[in-house]
Design brief:
Number of domains: 1
Order of helices and strands: HHHHH
Number of strands: 0
Number of helices: 5
Shape: globular
Radius of gyration: 14 Å
Strand content: under 5%
Largest sheet: none
Amino acid sequence: MLFVCGKSSELLPEALVAAQQIQFEEYRAQVLVALADKLSQIRTTQLYPLWQNTLHTLSLRTRPDLLSDITALTPVIFALGGEEAIKKTVIAIQDVSRWWR
């Protein structure tokens, strides 16, 4: 893939931005899954701002697309906040789904 010569952490922010631009949800999710494992291994101080920007950009899409993207990026959520972050994410999604019934 794109991670060669030990430069993967330098390329991750650019790759993440490029992935967010993919219009077709299935392809975007596949790329995000591939990036999520690498992203989850970088320092939290570097990862958090990437996550903030990514979440904002992805939130501008449809609700089903956002849910797919969040699922693909679960390793990032776990890296940032552990099991508690995963639980809170699920609860937040459930709350919002109840509001829109």
